[in-house]
Amino acid sequence: MFFMTLLSLALLDSLSTGTLVIPLIFLAQPRFQVRTLALYCFTLGLFYTALGTLLLLGVEAITWNHPIFSSQGRYWIQLILGAILFAYGILSPSPDSRASEIKWRTRLEKVTNPRAAIFIALLAGVLEAATMLPYLAAISMLNTWDSTIITKLIVLIGYCLIMFIPAVTLLVIRRLASSWITPKLDHFVSLATRNADGAILWIAAIIGFLMARQAYTEIF
Fold first, then answer.
1. Which residues are listed as membrane-spanning (predicted)?
2. Which of 44, 96, 98, 175 has its CA 20 to 30 A from that of 158?
3. pLDDT tens-digit profile of 134-156?
């Protein structure tokens, strides 16, 4: 049951903007290069592996032990941050779906060299890390799992690999059946990018609500 839950969380993470939408845009480009997508996926996977390793090794706990973050003070900070996130997600104007699609395509069509691919991957990781609810839930499960740190790290690496299964599968299909899949990829990109910005707002609102509710319960 433990591993089935982790597998489910990893598959959910595989549908995020960083792990699926951006690779889709790369794949749909007429002058698509395997090297660009491979470097992007490797960098983003390495980022999430490194972040998970730091969290498993207790960096988060060490940070919260600072005197500034007393038990009560920590929850007040969490409450304020949660309220800000919730307000941002709810009160922000609904994004223009067409403008959202154009924005995503314009940003990524210019990525033609390794440095740009690495930068986009790191930027996606930093911006998405706090909103990757399945990933954070998986790290929490691994933290409470009664096993050695080496075993946990091995499972973490496997988790991060699973996150890229859809992107790698589409890459293989793109290489083997380019004429068949390319028109469909363009449709998928339009659908994904039109809803990407709206999804980010909803995720921000949900995370903010959960953070604020948990902090409010602890304070009052």
1. 6-27, 39-63, 75-95, 116-137, 149-177, 198-216
2. 175
3. 788 788 788 878 888 899 999 99
